[in-house]
Amino acid sequence: MKIVYESKTGHTKKYAEMLAEKLKIDCIALQDYKQEQEDIIFLGWVFADQIKGYSKIKHRANVICTIAVGINPYSKENDEKLIQTNLVNTPFFYLPGGIDYTKLKGISKILLKLVIDQRIKENKPEDKEVIPIMKMGGSLVKEENLIPIMEYLTKK
Ligand SMILES: Cc1cc2nc3c(=O)[nH]c(=O)nc-3n(C[C@H](O)[C@H](O)[C@H](O)COP(=O)(O)O)c2cc1C
After folding, report:
1. Does residue 10 line the site of ligand 1, with CB under 6 A?
2. Residue of 47, 74, 114, 119 to test ligand 1 pocket, by largest number of atoms within 8 Å of CB
3. Which residue of 9, 49, 56, 69 pairs with 103 in a disulfide if CB–CB is 3.0 to 4.6 A?
4. Which fold has domain 2-98+140-155?
5. DSSP letter string over 1-62?
């Protein structure tokens, strides 16, 4: 079994590497992954509700668990939206990532700014923790966020 990930600015990669170390298995970026039909754990960053890379990998490998990394705060509704939009047919987990403005350019930066402006306007209480990160950049990546995933994988 391997961990395969798609990450734009490094937060998803960091989780993939942490998980690989805990599980003592290899991890590899989707762009470098050549093998087919083996068991994998997939992690992808969220872009406009799409789990990047998931549609490519799900036909090529036996995904035993899908992990989405985004900036939205955790909610059951957000999980359900991601599962439905991406037609996820495996156990699913969501992890909070982060924003790194030094690694974002062009259209991604512009799109993110539009999303953030909208969120600031909406002023939802659940966004309180993420708004400063959205504005200034920052990370919510923490090893302890992997606890439920480790529990699930070690019970399997
Ligand atoms: C253009 C753009 C769109 C995004 N859309 C979403 C989104 O729909 N939902 C979400 O939770 N996070 C969204 N994010 C936040 C990213 O998923 C978050 O920054 C993630 O941690 C990036 O992972 P990475 O560092 O591995 O690339 C978006 C980020 C960008 C740049």
Report:
1. yes
2. 47
3. 9
4. Rossmann fold (3.40.50)
5. -EEEEE-SSSHHHHHHHHHHHHHT--EEEGGG----SSEEEEEEEEETTEETTHHHHTTTSE
